[in-house]
């Protein structure tokens, strides 16, 4: 009995989930996510610990699959099915288990109304598709490739199944076809008015085994790795935006999981970068809890991934065309469906997009209908190829579509820049700002991130606006001639026309700065940061001498007689450096006079330490970035 109590205490010390998720029955077979020592930094130890784990699990009759391990720099993770009793016995044999978590329970969560909408009102001739090396990859339930609205936009080799291309490639439940419709065509109602929809890219699909119950267990991070691998092996020269409109219940504190860390690893891509859009997740819409409920319900896993673009929802749809009642949200306000809440270490969601509205008819909430829902494609290709849908499942592919359009206009740029241009064009609507005016700036950012992107502004910023773009790789370590390892600052001398700005004097100037980069994750290592290293930026104030500015951003520039703190920036940024210099997408803006701007001559990008500092071999490490 004493040994069993000791075992029980030890296993609970490793538990990273809520205690109300802990099974009451010690002999009930449950799924667990286990983390063990060994990672990519020491493959010999990694392989040894992995092999021993599989062997011991097989001896105890514990379900485990060797190919389901996800490897990070210092840790590896997998899922197993075992009772608490068997798990305790496994720990007797394995000293390498470092943490036990509840596995991500992924499911499809979306609203849809399978009403019949006459397709004769839509002119397919106004869909103009062209060949391109840009694709939006929909990782979902598949695509109904025979849908007449999608035939011309699906890539020739664009249908896959993560379980093998000999498995079904079509849409199993309909969700993926709805997502694909938004990713390819946006909202379809414009076709009624004979608006041309240009699709200068292609759509492709990877069908994954997911349903609406969440009962199917998988190492979802490994599923996404395999999905990315399938399409990139098929055509590696293509520029892709991966969309994920599925998720699992997130952690209350926004903690990273194996799934979200995998997304971060895929986006880092050995410093080459990848683009992912992920739905923030949905709540059940109510009339009384609207706005507050949206704020307190945290975003779905893996939306907390730092490198991905997490997409929440707002709405412009406020017409009650076939229902009696009032819309819950006003035009331009937060969608009643969207999740938000605190994501650890970053502003999340990053942006918001159309997610639909709801109606209160006096007795209950109506979640969809004409005028409040989004028109998209359906898997019922014969009798009902168009349907109504809503929620952040539709908002995420809307942002993926914008990224594809931006990349098509600016094909020379890297993923960091395309992502940065999206955020650079985003602002909260006037209605969103008013909706959260009494709640403060923090609540506004939790609700909508940087706001609603503007495709025309994003492309114009890259082409013809007064906009300076620089992209590259930040070299985290480099050696001096003496052999010392140091970290450098990236100092930008801004080519302001100082004399012209002084002539303009009190004329107001609007300035925005956006920094986009990708970090290398290392989850579940208590002695170091999650990020290999991260970056942040600061700008010289209008009353700040260059020497003081450099002392403010780099303490190594300070002498023994200089104060150790108290250096301030007089620029009144909208978000502020404390709030914005988190995560991997950092954007802020300010309005100042031309004369004040004339003195703001420098921007500095500086590093923030992470687990790279603990590497024994301080080889040069790279952070891809764009400013």
Name the features.
single chain; 627 residues; alpha/beta; 7-stranded parallel β-sheet; 16 helices; 22% strand; globular
Task: Please sum up the structure shown.
By secondary structure, the protein is α/β, with parallel strands linked by helices. It has a seven-stranded parallel sheet with strand order 8-10-7-11-12-13-15, with helices on both faces. A four-stranded antiparallel sheet has the order 2-3-1-4.
Describe this structure in words.
- This protein is of the alpha/beta class.
- It contains 16 helices and 28 strands.
- The strands form eight sheets. The protein has a seven-stranded parallel sheet, sandwiched between helices.
- Helix 4 (175-185) packs parallel to helix 8 (392-409) and helix 5 packs parallel to helix 6 (258-268).
- 47% of the residues are buried.
- The model has no long low-confidence stretch (mean pLDDT 90).
- On the 0-100 scale, what is the average pLDDT? 90
- How many individual β-strands? 28
Strand order of the largest sheet: 8-10-7-11-12-13-15
Q: Provide the helix percentage.
A: 25-40%
Taking the sheet with the most strands, its summary is: 7 strands, parallel
Gyration radius, to the nearest Å?
A: 25 Å
Helix tally?
16
Q: What's the end-to-end separation, in Å?
A: 61 Å
Share of β-strand residues: 15-25%
Shape: globular
Name the structural class. alpha/beta
- Unreliably modeled segments: none
